[in-house]
């Protein structure tokens, strides 16, 4: 009887400890807008040690897409850099990117700009694929994840 009571007490204590454990925090950064209209997502979300950046188009401060894949790639990477900076991170913290291209024929031209933001030997892992239409008629959308470090 004493043994059963001890087990029941132990299980109860473990259950209470598990339910009292702090929940992993999720932090949201930025409230993006386009031409004064709020967009339905965050610029970035941190979960633990990882910062997930929303996909970035090459939209400039004027709310417009520049002409050409190289200009849009540069602006998308500048937008990513601005988000990283606001969260206390930099390009060196990026460990993975996904490039979505409206036309895979632009892959080489996109790479020409992309490599200037990530030094040789320290480039993030990356995936790229062709998409049948990107938001706002963009030629590229870049989505990245970065190491955010311990809290």
UniProtKB/TrEMBL annotation:
Residues 1-20 form the signal peptide. The keyword Signal applies. The keyword Plastid does not apply. Keywords: Signal. This is RidA family protein. It comes from Sphingomonas hankyongi.
């Amino acid at each position: 009887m004493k043994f059963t009571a001890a087990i029941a007490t132990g299980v109860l204590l473990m259950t209470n400890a598990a339910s009292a454990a702090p929940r992993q925090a999720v932090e949201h950064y930025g409230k993006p807008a386009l031409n004064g209209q709020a967009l339905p997502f965050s610029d970035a979300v941190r979960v633990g040690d990882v910062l997930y950046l929303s996909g970035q188009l090459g939209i400039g401060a004027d709310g417009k897409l520049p002409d050409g894949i190289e200009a849009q790639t540069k602006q998308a990477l500048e937008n990513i850099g601005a988000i990283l900076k606001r969260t206390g991170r930099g390009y060196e913290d990026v460990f993975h990117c996904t490039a979505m291209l409206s036309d895979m024929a632009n892959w080489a031209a996109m790479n020409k700009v992309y490599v200037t933001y990530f030094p040789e030997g320290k480039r993030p892992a990356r995936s790229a694929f062709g998409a049948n239409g990107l938001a706002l008629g963009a030629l590229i959308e870049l989505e990245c994840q970065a190491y955010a470090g311990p809290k």
